[in-house]
Design brief:
Number of helices of chain B: 3
Structural class of chain B: alpha+beta
Number of strands of chain A: 0
CATH class of chain A: Mainly Alpha
Oligomer: heterodimer
Strand content of chain A: under 5%
Shape of chain B: elongated
Order of helices and strands of chain A: HHHH
Structural class of chain A: mainly alpha
Largest sheet of chain B: 2 strands, antiparallel
Radius of gyration of chain A: 19 Å
Amino acid sequence: MTSPAMTSPIGDPASAARAAIEAAMRRHADAVARVRGSETPPGADVERSNGFGDALEQTLNKVDASVRESDRLVDDFVSGKVNDFHEVALRLKQSELSFRFAMEVRNKLVDAYREVMRMSV
Amino acid sequence: MDPLTNLFSGLRTSSSAMSAERTRIDVIAKNLAYAQVTHMPDGSGPYRRQVVRFSTVMKRAAPGTKPEPEGVKVDRIEPDQVTPLERVYSPGHPDADAQGMVTYPNVNPTSEMADLITAVRAYESNANAADGFVKMAERALRLAQ
């Protein structure tokens, strides 16, 4: 991974997924620490969750754009504008992979949320 | 640059190479098909075999960085002017000259077939590379599950 992608956690779906999972874990840990009466400042947590929400939204937008593009590509293919089979196949695979990465992030988020909600306070 | 574009650059490199090889197969098919054409409609004489030249596609780089190649494209398709045209004695042919010689295209079916096999194999190896990329991404995805 190149350095620019490292500086922004939303660099690409893979690092975004990593960042999302890390953030979800951090929130989880923070929640546990708060319940246990540790000195986690509430402000820091709120800000972090804002940044994470933005990052997630941006990544989802990109995945959405990729899926839309593959839809358009299929339209182009059936209307004869694209003449390479593999081009369509590989683009479809690309958007499928992006989507599955995004789904995995979403699953982790929901898991973390459930984990927190299940906790008896 | 779009981050998704960056992540899938390997896939796009393979895809561009496959497109280039496909063009090459088109040209070889044309050469084989026109191997006996002694009269082009524009009056330029027999067909001349065509050759493709590949070049790299440069990635649009961020300001201040050096652009890197990312993929293959067909730079140009040119007629082969070096390989001599074939001369065959065939007096009854409509294109025969005063000595009864007919000029045939400079297409050598054997070497065209060899090129065809190379192009098909190159297409396959790029398809395998793309397949490997997808397999790696899917394997990485399993880590998160």
